[in-house]
């Protein structure tokens, strides 16, 4: 699968993507369906305190007023990183009065994986480690136009996840997401750019974090 037929050569308004759901910070920006610049840093616990400095250094030569939309990873992931990323994205979108596109980290992994690997099915089941031996899981249908959610992000025991997959009416390609997700920020940007280019204008207040677990 790929971006064929999506008019990747067509330039659209400037966008910014933030992936903060793990200890990695991923930032991407650009004016097309593919980001023009992507950077990832493993900040550890300093992500929550240093995010704004990295943003300030990453954005130039563009300014905040150049942005037409923002895309944010809404989780699942670490509590602190997910929270600070969502708060930052919502604040920027509110102040700039621009659309904010929230995407599941698992849906983003499904999209990214499908762009780099050939699968015999459009249905992709993604799991991601949670606490206490459990996992987060979601099932998605990936097409050239984006990602459709078939089974939304939920928390499962391994046994429950296997039962969910067995009961699903379509064969799924299974993918286990890396515990570090900063590298998915480019795919996150593309999903937001596709939405913006397609005429979607989601209000910032609709963006909500998905923690799926308590911080302790």
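^ Assign residues to that structure.
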């Amino acid at each position: 699968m790929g971006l064929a037929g999506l008019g990747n050569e067509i330039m659209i308004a400037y966008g910014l993507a933030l992936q903060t759901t793990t200890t990695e910070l991923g930032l991407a920006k650009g004016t097309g369906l593919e980001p023009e610049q992507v950077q990832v840093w493993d900040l550890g616990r300093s992500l929550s305190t240093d995010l704004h400095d990295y943003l300030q250094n990453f954005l130039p030569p563009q300014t905040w007023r150049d942005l037409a939309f923002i895309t944010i990873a809404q989780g699942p992931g670490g509590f602190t990183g997910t929270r600070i990323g969502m708060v930052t994205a919502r604040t920027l979108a509110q102040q700039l009065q621009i659309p904010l596109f929230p995407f599941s980290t698992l849906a983003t992994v499904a999209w990214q994986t499908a762009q780099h690997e050939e699968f015999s099915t459009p249905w992709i089941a993604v799991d991601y480690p949670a606490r206490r031996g459990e996992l987060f899981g979601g099932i998605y249908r990936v097409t050239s136009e984006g990602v459709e959610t078939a089974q939304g992000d939920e928390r499962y025991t391994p046994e429950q996840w296997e039962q969910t997959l067995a009961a699903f009416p379509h064969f799924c390609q299974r993918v286990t997401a890396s515990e570090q997700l900063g590298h998915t920020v480019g795919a996150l940007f593309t999903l937001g750019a596709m939405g913006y280019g397609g005429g979607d204008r989601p209000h910032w207040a609709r963006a909500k974090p998905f923690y799926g677990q308590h911080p302790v």
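Strands lie at 15-19, 24-30, 37-42, 69-73, 100-103, 123-129, 135-143, 146-156, 173-176.
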